[in-house]
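Morning!

As promised:
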Amino acid sequence: MEIGLGEYLALASLLFGIGATGFLTRRNALIQLMSIEIMLNSVNVVLVAVNRFHPENHAGQIFSFFVIAVAAAEAAVGLAILIALYRLKKTIETDKADVLRH
Amino acid sequence: MSDASFVLFLMCSVSALAGALGTVASRRPLRGAVSLLVMIIALAGLYLTLAAELLAAIQLLVYAGAVVVLFVFVIMLIGPAAETPPNPRGIMVRILSFVGMGMFTATVSFSLVDVSAQWVRRPDGFGTVEGVGSSLYTQALVPFEIISITLTVAIVGAVAVARSKTARELAEARERAAAMKAEAEAAKAAKAAKAA
């Protein structure tokens, strides 16, 4: 069996689906942040794969480079917010983060 | 595509899916972090089959070396509270959401499997440090500089958010200071009485 662009795209969509399911069903903020990382990584796979089949320039690889940088910044800020939430509520369940709701 | 990269693709895709599923399904966040590490390393292997050596190295350095370690640090900092009790919304809702998302993902991925493109010969310097670096500095110089500002702002923001005190912590600190002051004054008074 020959592996082509389709297999990479299918793998990326499976990864994205797993990440989205995790983000929507879990209530642990840490796991939810990890699910976001899974989704960002699956997008990177798509960008790099399409770039391999159109190698005239490095547009896809450069874009995924920026996605990696933004994902690192997002992880840092997200974890800082998580720590602030933990100090306020003594839990990291996202259902308990309802300070702005009442 | 050579046989070696075929084998690498199979190994990496299977372990990437297993790692992602382990991350999402793990009850303990530390196991989730290790599963995330497995997925990230597998994706670095996939980048190698796609002629993106520099990105594979960056993936290992930034994700495996920095982001996962950051997650592990936070898990260590939070301690036992990192593990949350199961979702009380009932098993039915979770099964329904898994099935719904699984059906959607299966539809998308089965339609994407048929996308085909010719494997083209890899141009000289494609995906290497030299090739990507020169593209980065000739075609994307301004975004590259802006990303450094973004990272700086993110670091400063993270420190500001994580270090700020809550109202309760401020009150506790004030109470503690007042108690220490009273204690010191009492000691001073006792000393003065003794001298007299």
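Chain A has a mean pLDDT of 91.

Hope this helps with the figure draft.
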